[in-house]
Amino acid sequence: MVDYDDIFGAASADRLDEVTLEVFYMQAERCAPYAEYLRLIGVEPREIRRVEDIPMLPIELFKTHDVYSAVEPPQVVFTSSATTGMTPSRHPVADLVLYERCFTESFRRFYGEPAEWSIYGLLPSYLERQGSSLVYMVDRLIATSGRGGFYLDNYQKLLDDMRRDEHPKILLGVTYALLDLAEQYAPRLEGTVVMETGGMKGRRRELPKSELHEVLCRAFGVEQIASEYGMAELMSQAYSKGDGVFFAPPWMRVLVRDINNPFSRLADGRRGAIDIIDLGNIHSCSFIATQDVGMRYADGSFRIEGRVSKSDIRGCNLLVQ
Fold this sequence. Notes:
Layout: H1 4-9, H2 13-30, H3 32-40, E1 57-58, H4 61-64, E2 76-79, E3 90-93, H5 96-111, E4 118-122, H6 124-127, H7 133-145, E5 148-151, H8 155-164, E6 169-174, H9 175-185, E7 192-197, H10 209-220, E8 226-229, E9 238-240, E10 245-246, E11 252-258, E12 261-265, E13 272-278, E14 287-296, E15 302-307
Parallel strand pairs: 1-14, 4-5, 4-6, 6-7, 7-8
Antiparallel strand pairs: 2-3, 8-9, 10-15, 11-12, 11-13, 13-14, 14-15
């Protein structure tokens, strides 16, 4: 039986593979949508012997099914943001203690102790709705720090509060809000980690990451723009400190599949669709075929380059109604 210490404490690659396969066999029995998906594609779980061969559940099923493996009722249901007319994803979470451990240990690996930072959240579209896992994460990090806070569109108060704060600072903002701040104030934020997440949310035209980061660097007077990669369907997060290259904690691994053949793996350095193994999802499904496009590098880092268009998806929607 896999426990939390197995997830976070697997030091060797062999042990991590062993834990991953154990989680797969368990979820193949207990997660009904995943079990049905495996049946439909003709996979006998116990015949899977390598992590690379584990089938990934199409992320779209979080919109149409309860993707859940636990026996007890969920403590909370996180939901994704959705533009008008879209169906949000739903991620039932059995244990908020596990979620807090996931995001705290991920943050600690890349930025040290949360208490050492002042964390400012510029997340208007997330604060304006219920069920955001990102808001929950940032709220708990702010509580641990004891400094910083959330801001909607009061940019002047945000800047005034940051200016008075002499501690190391992280400004974590949804992309369109950071662009608004850059265009309206162009504040010099030297000594601050500017971290973008979440995209435009239908508020502005999407920009290539390189162009976006160039605009923000110029406006804020910083050399790099950091990024956070997470989603409602995942318990864990990856971080980029610049150049759009993300690093994930050991219990969150990225693989790349052929866009036109979801069962074909691509070698490092080749562009394809992103698959994620997140052992933090032990109570739902840890094996997710996302709609993001990118590539993985030999050291396990990865880059996100866009989204899979609907016309490109092949063979990955057997349960989507």
